[in-house]
Amino acid sequence: MSSDAPNKEACSPANGGCGCSGGTPASGALPPGVVTVEAPAPTTRRNFLFQIGIALNLLAGALISIPLIGFVLSTFIQKFPLQWISLGSLEKFPVGQVRLAQYLNPYRRTWDGETAHIPCWVRRIDEAEFQVFAINCTHLGCPVRWFAESKLFMCPCHGGAFYENGDHAAGPPPRGLFTYEYRVLNGNLEIKGGILPTLANPGNPTEKVKEA
Length: 212
Hints:
Largest sheet: 4 strands, antiparallel
CATH topology of the domain at 83-193: Rieske Iron-sulfur Protein
CATH superfamily of the domain at 83-193: Rieske [2Fe-2S] iron-sulphur domain
């Protein structure tokens, strides 16, 4: 037998069919340098609807987050400087009495309506000394009422009570009433208003916050 004859064992399918120089590649084998590329899977209706759902969720999340981000940033960017607002002539507030007054919010919007008129309680201690209280209870913000007979401010919501000078008397409120800074100018009583006194902007607190 000639030595040039192909080696049957080397050309057998078990050895890949490529052991002989003149042999033909086995069925299914690719020539060297050829790269296979898989065809993309066809888009099914289920996958399409899934992708649409993801897009809608992302859009909804963006629509919700935009106003929230704007609200948070507005506390650092947008500032409302307080300004002096007249409550009227001193004759409206007799010495030794507490009277309800009202002022127009300088930062009102057209849709505020009657809520742009902010009430407050004015206590005249003597000819030159006043206390001007925010009408809101320091518990949950309900409007307090003045009872001259008992000389107490009472909250109708949860039974909070405050003394005549605004100090906390009873009930769940954690502190006394918030007060406005005031001045007397040209026979009129003026307060520094525009933003309601709160824990963040307490004005002139009549009593420190109670220790927890």
